[in-house]
Task: structure prediction
Amino acid sequence: MVLSIEYRIPMPLCKEEYEIGQLYGVARLSAKEGEELAKKKGKDGESGGGVEFLDNEAYTDDEHGSGWYTYKIIHLANKLPGWIKTMLPVSSLQLREQCWIPDPEYKQQGFHQTTSYRCPMFDQLTMSVRTTLSDGDIDFEDSNSNVFGLTEEELKGRKVEMIRVEEVWDCLGPEQPDEENPAKVGCPKAERPPLGPDWIASYRAAGRPVMCVHKLVTCSFKYWGVQDRVEALMQRKGFMEIFYKMHRPMLPWMTEWYGMTKDDIRVYEERTRVFLEQLRESGEGEPTEEGPSSQSTRALVAGGGAELGSMEQGSSAARASTGTEGTERESCWSISVPEREPLPPNAPIADIIEAILKRQNAMDQQQQQISHHVAVLSKYLQYQQHLVQETKDTCGQVVTAASAMPQPNASRAEGTSQGNGGNVFTNMFKFGNKE
Result:
């Protein structure tokens, strides 16, 4: 049976504020995690985690209405023990997330925010999250409420779990900062005090906004023998704790995003995407000194790997014979990769534009270098082909001239059935022998 749980998260926000705060929080947490993973990689040389943004654009279709679509790859290697990572392929350590967020007018028509997850390695694994919001003087803990319009059969298989962001859970760890604790930090700018044990009643009494986030999570892991345990683990570790961590700092961070529009959030998300891409690229593709051709050049001429490898072996042998094996020098074939410091998502827009222009200029120069190397290699190949053809022509001329040479002792030649030319090479190599 497919496990379905509805998580309910009371929040001190109105619906419009939550939509802004939720998008801001996801982007900020992604940037924070990416930065932590980059620092970890700098220490132990291993990361294997983070979020990779692929699509972030408007959409329109019959199934999800019209709104905003995002497509991400969530890398899970940093969340697994090392011995498991050595046994599983890379594709099994990734989750592909697709999210459709309908516009307000489509939400009024019954469209819900829908998020689906899939793993390329496990085709029998499916996960989906439907999200809707409710407000007003209603009991959020009423297990009979049906905000998703489920059928009677679906209601029988649904469980309800409450998530209280003001509580302290064990999953936070000992290093949780106080500035992200909604029980200690509120938002004076929006007149939202910290959350006490009975904050819902006090907020309503003061006329402050109160709403509830409903997330209906469905997990299916159709592998016999482990289905129930894996589905329960995914619900607890994969969703419930993540929802808690994502919503807990939303009130303390409200000072940062309060007053932002959806257009501002889209700009912030794009900055976050560029920031994460820079972090990911900063640890990959660094050229290493390995002879007359760098790693980038070898990738460029992958078709001629055998000839290029023999050239590198010869060059390495030459360096060893001259005692220069440990001498560091820049290869004449190396392609320079410009170094850059990733900009945080909240950097000024002028710095973002300047960094993009510098990066584009550096990429143009790098492309010119690649084109130059390709042209040089092409001319070198043409020259080699010319030498081969000249060698063939010379050998042909030698054979023709040798065949026409007279033999002074032809009568003494043995096996002359092929004429004078038959033993021409034998006679040529006997010229020094004495009779």
About this structure: Residues 407 and 420 are 7 Å apart (CA to CA). Residues 349-403 form the longest helix (55 residues).
